[in-house]
């Protein structure tokens, strides 16, 4: 595709454009001398995105920023993130070829899919953080900050994630970060955990009773039954592995804020949207991603009720597959 020809066609008045020039200019617009791709997200012509067209010399930069520096996600998710704001021809093939060059990505990815008879799904709540999942991921190398466990919080509706490194999986550490979580997002109605001693202790049960929280324990016979945990681990474990070099394993807890941001800002397969967008109603602009060229979409500030309703429906559809 010759972008220069498209620009030349757009500069001409529509009345004097040839048929070929009209076809070239279709779905493009020239704003302040900058070329944009007009993308309609649905049959509704008012619901559209204006995407900055990347020149050939700038495409490698996008691939590096959205893959190498953004959690080493798979091809489908990387393309989905880029297409939120940018466009260039044959993007999928280009990103696929870029990711193939990363050997560590090929070795660290965990096969997806539901294991028959093992994974159970929990219906999404009626509001964010009504139902949350908590679990520990370990063992890690003891970090320079003396952390060796990772406490994970997941909202069952928005899929919003919070990561907190811990020295050990004691109940007092769990309650410390649960207090922090409830101060930020409010008290959940239900908490789903495994049967680890930190969650099955009388101290944790007393905490739940005090604040009227229903505590659901997974079966000790089938700890893998929590489908939400299995799903996030397929993303979280490879991301940490891909972003921590062998010689710097003792600094694994330093990258957690970036890992958390990458997951919360990237589209979730079950909801179709980033957890951040579902929760707050807008897509955050990443630093260094040509903000001066990004134009607001026609629905930049989405209605939260619509976004949450869409997330609930998409989760139900995903669970039925």
TrEMBL record:
What SUPFAM superfamilies does this protein's entry cite?
Ribonuclease H-like
Q: What does the record give as EC number?
A: 2.7.7.49
Positions of the Integrase catalytic domain: 124-283
Among InterPro entries, the record links this protein to: Integrase_cat-core, Integrase_H2C2, Retrovirus_Pol_polyprotein, RNaseH-like_sf, RNaseH_sf
Kindly give the Gene3D superfamilies that the UniProt entry links to this protein: 1.10.340.70, Ribonuclease H-like superfamily/Ribonuclease H (3.30.420.10)
**Which major enzyme category is it?**
transferase
Instruction: Give GO BP annotations, semicolon-separated.
Output: DNA integration
Q: Which Pfam families does this entry report, sorted A to Z?
A: Integrase_H2C2, rve
- Tree of life domain: Eukaryota
Record-linked PROSITE patterns: INTEGRASE
What is an example of a GO molecular function annotated in this UniProt entry? Answer: RNA-directed DNA polymerase activity
What PANTHER family does the annotation carry?
PROTEIN CBG26694, PROTEIN NYNRIN-LIKE
What protein name applies here? RNA-directed DNA polymerase
Organism listed in the record: Argiope bruennichi (Wasp spider)
